[in-house]
Amino acid sequence: MRWRNKIPLLLAAFCCSVPVAAQSGYTAGAPARSVRPPRLSAALSATGACRFVVAGFRGAIEDPNDRHSGVVAIRNRLLALGHPDLCARIYSPYRQGRAINWILSQFDRDGSDPPTVDAIAHGPKIILYGYSLGAWAMMAVARQLNKEKIPIQVGVEVDGMWSASKTVPPNIIEAANFYQRKSLLMKGRDTIRARDPETSRIDGNFRVNGQGHYTIDLAPEVSDFVVAKVEALYAPE
Question: 26 lies in a domain?
Answer without folding.
Answer: no
